[in-house]
Amino acid sequence: MRRATQVWLPHRNLLVACQLALLVTGTASGQDPAARPPVAAKASSEEALVRGGELFAREWIPRDPRSHGGDGLGPVYNERSCLGCHHQGGPGGGGGGDKNIEIATATGDAFPSTGAFYSFGMSFGGAGFQYRLASNTSPTRPKPLNPADLVQIHAGFRETTSVVLHRFGPDADYRSWRGTVPGQHGAIFIKSSQRNPTPLFGIGLMEAIPDEVLVAAARRRFAGWPQVRGRVGRLGDGRIGRFGWKAQTATLEEFVLSAATVELGLEVPGRRQAGDPRIPAIAAPGLDLDQDDCDDLTSYVRSLPAPLIEEPANAREAQQVKAGGAVFKTIGCSTCHQPKLGDVEGLYSDLLLHDMSPQLGDTSFYGVFAAQQPAPARKPSPGASLQEWRTPPLWGLRDSGPYLHDGRAETVDQAIRMHGGQATPSAQRYAQLSARERSQLEAFLLSLAAPR
What we know:
Layout: H1 12-22, H2 39-57, H3 82-85, E1 101-107, E2 117-124, E3 127-134, H4 147-153, E4 162-164, H5 172-179, E5 183-185, E6 188-195, H6 203-207, H7 211-219, E7 233-234, E8 240-241, H8 252-263, H9 291-303, E9 308-309, H10 315-330, E10 340-341, E11 344-345, E12 353-355, E13 388-390, H11 412-417, H12 424-431, H13 435-445, E14 448-449
Antiparallel strand pairs: 1-4, 1-6, 2-3, 5-6, 7-8, 9-14, 10-11, 12-13
Helix pairs in contact: 1-2, 2-9, 8-9, 10-13
C-alpha cells in the first residue's frame, strides 16, 4: 500500500479540497489527468460535496424545517445523523457497540414440548468443544409460522421474518412496547441479534471495482487452503452485492439511501421511511430528502478518503510491522483478506461471501416496516446463508473496533480466535503462534489506520 499523509481539517471547505485532490480529479481511480473536468464542473462538484457533508453531519429533528414537506426524523429511528453512527477515526468511520442496530427474527417455538433438541458450540483457535442435549425422540419439524400471528407481534413481519427493531420511537410508550417484542409469544419465539455500523472510508474506491474482478476472485483457489471458497453475493435480480455485512446491496446509492430511510426514518424518492409498527396506517406527508439531496449525500460518502498505513515511529517498529505482515500471509489470513483487489491497494478483502461457522451465524436478510406500503409476496431471500459473511475490509482496522458483525470481539485477538468455518485452519494456526509472532501480527494489523 502507498503510504500517505492525510490531514483531516475541521473547516468544511478545506476538507472538501483535501478530498477533491484525489477523488474529484480522478487520479485516484487511474484516470488520465489530462481528461479532468473543466473548472466550472469541478466547482459544482465541490459545492455538492459541501452540501452532502452538511447532510451527513446534520442532526435531524421531528418535523425538521430542512425536509421537503416530510416529517423529518423518524417516527422510528436508530440515530439522529449519519455521523452519529459513523464517527470513529473521523466522519465516515464505524461506530461503537452502543451504536449497534437490533434485529428481531421470528422462529418456531424455542422450547417445543416434544422432540426437544439443543445444540451449542464454541471454537477458540485450535481448542473447541460442542455440547448437545436431545430427548429420546427425534426432533420434530417446526410448524410453519402464521403471518397473521406474526404481525400481531410486529407489523414488519408481514414482509419478512427478520425486521429492524428501532431503538427510538415517537413517544414514551414506544420503549415499553419495544421491550415486549423479543422473547416467547405462544408458539413463536422472537430472537434478538445485532449489527455493528461499518466504516465508510474509501467506499467510493470499493464501488469502482468492476464486477468481473469479484467474479475472478471467487474462482481463485489457494494451495494449502483448499477449504477457502468465497462466492459472489448475488441479489434476486442477478446483480452482484458488495456492500453490507451480507453483501446484500449492489450500489453505493442504494446503500446510502437505505441507511437514510432505515436508520434516520427519512422519506426519500422511491423509498419509504421506517414507520411506527404500532400505527401501520400513518405515512410521511412528503419527502425529507429530494433527489438532489440524495445525490449530494451519496457523492459525499463516495468521496470519503481511503484509510492508510501508519508510518512506523522507528526502525524497530517498522521491523515488527513487516514481520507481522509475513505472519498474516503465513497463517492464511490473506486468502480472504486480500491486500489488493482490482486496482485498489490495501483493501484487505475479496468482498466475497464465506462460511464462518454456525457459531457466527445470523439471519441472512432483514427488512424494515414502512407504512402504507403493499406487502410483497413472501419468498425465500437470495444472497448469503445464515453462516456466510462478506469479508470485511481491514483497512482502517485500528480505528474501527469492536470487531465482527455484531461487535462481540473487543480486541483483534478475540476476533481472530472466533473465526470458524472456512477460517478455522487460520484460527488454529494463530493459536499456535508464539507470543512474539502474535505481537508482530497485532502490530501489523494496528498499523491499518483511519485517514487523518
